[in-house]
Specification:
Length: 81
């Protein structure tokens, strides 16, 4: 008669996964490629976010200049003809 250990399903599943799952530690070149890609994506995102802001600021500056031109009175000579 053999003696078998009764395990809960969670323990069995955990032991089964531990036997199959071998995690490979990333090499330095893997990390370097990841960081290059990550920095590239962040740079692209920054550009995509800055472009609308720059366009908005240019529009506001133009509107400010036009309003200023409309509200300032031209200086005319007070002596007259």
């Amino acid at each position: 008669m053999t003696h078998q250990t009764i395990m809960s399903p969670q323990v069995h599943r955990c032991q089964h996964q531990q036997g199959e799952a071998k995690i490979r530690r990333p090499s330095q070149s893997d990390l370097d490629r990841f960081m290059e890609a990550y920095c590239s994506v962040l740079s692209d995102l920054r550009g995509a976010m800055e472009e609308p802001q720059q366009e908005t600021m240019a529009f506001i500056d133009d509107m400010h200049s036009q309003l200023k031109d409309m509200t300032t009175t031209p200086t005319s000579s007070a002596s007259g003809p």
